[in-house]
Amino acid sequence: MGFNITSTRLFVFALSGIFLALGSCLTAYDIGMDPHVGMSLLINAMVAMIIGGTGRFEACVIGGVSLGILQALVVYQFSANWQNAITFLMLLLFLFFRPQGIIGYKKRMV
């Protein structure tokens, strides 16, 4: 009596994949696509990880929140054109002065 859990999970996973593919194709048909769709999000995530530090989830969250607040303040104070410049400036400052991040700890590499 009951459902076969393995086949039910497989069916639900396949059904969600079909719905996701259909929605993605319709969205791409409606607004268009280019090869650089998620590049800005990927770069912001990488910079947030470097700012926060690696090794712990809380560090990445703190880096993401601080980077998001900084970007919002830059857009509020100056212009949206300066948002990427300030992001890369923060990346360079952290790579030069604190490469382990805000919460990260120094690792000794041999």
Strand content: under 5%
Number of domains: 2
Mean residue pLDDT: 87
Rg from C-alpha positions? 20 Å
Q: Give the uncertain stretches in residue-range form.
A: none
Q: Based on helices, strands and strand pairing, what is the structural class?
A: mainly alpha
Sequence of secondary-structure elements: HHHH
Report helical residue fraction: over 70%
Shape verdict: flat
Query: For the terminal residues, how far apart are their CA atoms?
Result: 59 Å
> Helix count?
4
Largest sheet: none
Total number of strands? 0
Explain this structure.
The protein has 110 residues and is mainly α. It has 2 domains: 1-33; 39-97, no CATH class. It is 70% helix and 0% strand. The protein is built from 4 helices and no strands. The chain has helices at residues 5-31, 39-52, 57-77, 83-97. Helix 2 (39-52) runs parallel beside helix 4 (83-97) and helix 3 packs across helix 4 (83-97). It is flat. The termini are far apart.
